[in-house]
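dumping these here so i dont lose them again. two proteins, back to back, each one seq then structure tokens. dont judge the mess
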Amino acid sequence: MSASGSTPQSPAWGLVLPPAVAPARLWPSVAAAEEGGAGSIWVTDRTVSDMPWLETMTFLGALAARTARLPIGTSIFALARRNPVLTAHAFATAQFLSGGRVIAGIGLGGDRPAEYTLAGAALDRRGRITDEHIDVMRQLWAGGTVDYAGEEYSCAGVQLCPQPETRIPIWVGGQSPASFARAGRSGDGWLPAFLPPEGYGAAWAHVCESAVAAGRDPGAITRAVYCLAAIGRKDGDAEAVLDPFLRRVFGAPLEQLSFACLYGTPGRWVDQMGRFGAAGAQHVLTFLVTADLPSDVDLIVNEVLPQLAGTPVLAGA
């Protein structure tokens, strides 16, 4: 049985695009993922970096234009360092341009003081700010004129147009008990990171407790997981790409962060995704660290997804 108490099912694969890939290689990869069985496609969020990193909402708008049917989203968007009215407008615009396919993946964005300083936002209050900003955005998306007076943010007489014709779901990301509680209180979805399959059920129980305390049905919350990922045809290929990235971005080798990663051959991917599915995850989002995005997307589409769909234990047998 899964963490939700239901029979395990194959999780959908979500492609989290690398921070910056040349358009000539990026867009064919996006098309291959959409046509080849991906469940969703996502963009990341970071401003201060020592490597090229595309701006999130610009990237999301371009992705809306380059896809036709898949859900697209942010994984994850550091809401507390943005103006919530401008952010609500940006998400509503992407929702309009995509025909209603946007998911707002929201979180705190990791411990990056420089990004909060740059935005003039308080790092030590980012949790409370995030809660208020979620509330502001939902009110703006619901229509009418919004007057909001919170401890962290206030606005008066604000109205967005056009309004989203379909609801923009908010998936709450993070890897802390506070983020699990936030997902239970206010998330349409739960998107934890740095969480192995073995710990998924216990963390989900925390989300459920928070949801019940808030008078919500935990069964209405979509369950996902976010993994740093790399794939290779042979043993060692994925590790050779992923380890330098982790050392550069997180200052730690793969051996210390392997619990947070999905990597290896297609067979190893199938096994790991299957274990997340058995633990209750409905979506496995992979931030793909790659030296050749088109080739790696083709490998996932042709050798991971068919195996995943054909694995009896994941099909409920």
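---- next one ----
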Amino acid sequence: MVSEAARALHNAALVIDSHNDTIVNHMRAKLNLDGGPARQDGAAIVTRFGRGSGAELQLDFPKMRQAGINAAFFTVDVTNAKGTHLQYALDGLGFFLREAALSSEDIVIVRRAADITSAQKEDKLAAVLAIENTDGLDQSIYPLSAFYELGVRTLTITHSTRSWAADGCEVENGGGLTAFGKSVVTEMNRLGMLVDVSHLNDRGFWDTLKHSSAPVIATHSCCRALCGHPRNLTDEQLKELAAAGGVVGLTFVPEFVHDATPTIDGLIDHIVHAIDKAGIDHVALGSDFDGGGTLAEDAMVFPQITELLLQRGLSEGDVCKVIGLNHLRILSQVIG
């Protein structure tokens, strides 16, 4: 149950979610982003590498409205594309751009941070386009400029496995940023794209923080002090990420919250811990809906999170930072 006061605050606030895998899973489930069946049953590269489960998905445009989410990072994870990473990325982005154009909702593709606040004022939804795993560049920095023109504003350096740019958190004795990875970070800085360090191993995290001239984001991670999964950030990482102006989006993936009994209250524990270590200006939300973010049934959990943060003693202003303003700040600083 969400109190009237918490719901009123939530509905008035700017709410931003920094990670979902909704694009690919809607394609595989043959659903459109208005919540109905696919508008066209055409061939798609994405569907060659997995099929939808048929289960109801956690996020679409109507659910964003119902949950009071003003903006979300819509990500194409290219990790499993097996030799067609660049094509796979374009397939997913093309699908989403078409969905945005055909939707009954008003959707704004975010090119500047001000697009988010303008969309909120005009009662529109905002989408930040993202690619997960720089293997989507097919070993060249030049697709970055093309992706930028399409509206992509953030890339995750790698997934949990090895990429051309760096090693992920599951690679035993992995290395840090490769020469290619460093060139990717430099070019993203030049273009004004937000570098995402979620999934990196520790060496890659520190290399990226050192190499980037702009603040970086961990779009969907939790705190290793509370759950020892290698996908989570240590207290030292949280502190240094914040010192460099970055943001961590706490994620709703059960195994990152607790290794035995993950709960929504446990997620709030991670948020409070991150605030304690990184500071109130550097903590936000990154659900991983339609990916691994199954701690909550769907997007309707967002007002509940606002309620629980208030119950933990956060001021209304601090809650607004966590549910949206901190993401807006780093976007303003990096993408303009």
